[in-house]
Amino acid sequence: MMRALLSDLPLVFDRVSLRAGGTTMLNRVSLTIRPGAPTLVVGPNGSGKTSLLRLCMGLDAPSEGTVSWGGRTQSRQTRRAILFQEPMMLRRSVAANIAYGLAQAGYPRNRRAARTEELLDRVGLLELADRPARRLSGGEQQRVAIARALAREPEILLLDEPTASLDPAATRHFEAIVLAAAQSGTKVVMASHDLGQVRRLAGDVVFMVRGCVCEQASAGDFFEHPTTPEAAAFIRGDLVL
Amino acid sequence: MPESLSAWELIASGDATLFAIVRLSLVVSLSAVAIAGLIGLPLGAVLALTRFPGRTALVVTLNGFMGLPPVVVGLTVYLLLSRSGPLGELGLLFTPIAMIIAQSLLVLPIVAALTRQTIEDLWSEYRDELTAMGVGPSGRVATLLWDGRFSLITAMLAGFGRAAAEVGTVMIVGGNIEGFTRTMTTAIALETSKGNLPLAMGLGLVLISLILVINAAAWGVRVWSEQRAG
């Protein structure tokens, strides 16, 4: 399989702003994402989490500042994958959705079927392989989406509130898949506004309010010693706007 | 065709002339739809996925051409293929090939315009994921055409309905020559003008039955494949 030899890490934002139609989504954001345990991007709705992840993926270009992957400002997306909040399911079977991801990643045709089975087994969907993907439940669709993303063998896996509309059982199942990916060396960057989830998964935390990065700290420091009043209020469970 | 007989008696007796007419109608219309699909599906998809100056005008024109008057298309193809026309040397006028060419032109805007709309809607849903997966332009066209296949079957059926039902173009470029370019619609027009109304009506019912059968078959294919692929 063709793999880029260069690493996309560290992923660095240098005074990045993103504006569209008079709205500022991100305002002079600087941060560094390093290899290791999952980075959780935390903050209220509209704080810029999705914009941040799209820039991490390279789907949008910053209005100002630079995003760089392993020191390069131009980087092909082959080593990154992203899961959107509402996953797009191809109008095909579950297995065909995974095989599509493998094909796009340049995986050899004759090994796709076996690899598809492995990936479906990993997310617990082997018995649904032949079902139409769009008929699955929301939680099952998110598992199809993450299997399709893992088909790319990403170095960085970006997740945009993937469990926001899932029930606790489906959320636990999904988090187990994410943790397994993180333990096998994939750098997970995940947006969430669920503090319980942040405690369960985070190695470090990026806390955002109104398009700015308010704090970046290890999970322990973030919860024990928040340095900004906004973060302290968010952790207490107060409404941060 | 013996004119004292009604269409039902002709069918019941397995009349060779009638079956030749039915067969020619189907060959011409289905070939025209196939050609229009071969060109119109990729054309509509490319139009849906690209942005260039004048695109809006092209889209509006294409939508408008869905209502092209058949006689005008027939006249244009007639002028192209007539002995003194630019393609006159091919000797295609008053042949089934001329009828296929003319009907393809009639159906092409329908298939292309409906495809453009279907693919554009699908693209707004697929854009982010396909971009993130690094799918190139030709891969996008192929993916969207395949995933839009259920709606595109309907677009093709609309094109077939148009081709099978129209009489103006095939009359002008085919000439309604008995045993050679006579289709069901031109035969109906002829029998009506001759006052043979029972036969004309009978042929009309045969034509409607065929259109219904083909639509039902396509519907069956759609339901069957949708159950398998969602």
Describe this structure in words.
The complex is a heterodimer of chains A (241) and B (230). Chain A has 241 residues and is of the alpha/beta class. The relative contact order of chain A is 0.19. Helix content of chain A is 34%, strand content 24%. Chain A has a domain at 32-194: Rossmann fold, CATH 3.40.50.300. Chain A has helices spanning 49-57, 94-104, 112-122, 138-150, 168-183, 195-201, 219-224, 229-236, and strands spanning 11-20, 23-33, 39-42, 64-69, 80-83, 156-160, 187-192, 204-209, 212-218. Chain A is built from eight helices and nine strands. Chain B is an all-alpha fold and 230 residues long. Chain B has one domain: MetI-like fold (Orthogonal Bundle), CATH 1.10.3720. Chain B has ten helices and no strands. In chain B, helix 3 (55-65) packs across helix 5, helix 5 (96-132) crosses helix 6 (137-147) and helix 7 (149-165) packs antiparallel against helix 10. Chains A and B meet through helix 2 of A and helix 5, helix 6 and helix 10 of B.
Multimeric state:
heterodimer
- The residue fraction in helices of chain A comes out at 25-40%
- Pairing-aware structural class of the strands and helices of chain A? alpha/beta
Provide the domain count of chain B: 1
CATH class of chain B: Mainly Alpha
CATH overall fold name of chain B: MetI-like fold
Give a quick set of tags describing it:
heterodimer, A: 241 residues, alpha/beta, Rossmann fold, six-stranded mixed β-sheet, three-stranded antiparallel β-sheet, 8 helices, 9 strands, 34% helix, globular, B: 230 residues, mainly alpha, MetI-like fold, 10 helices
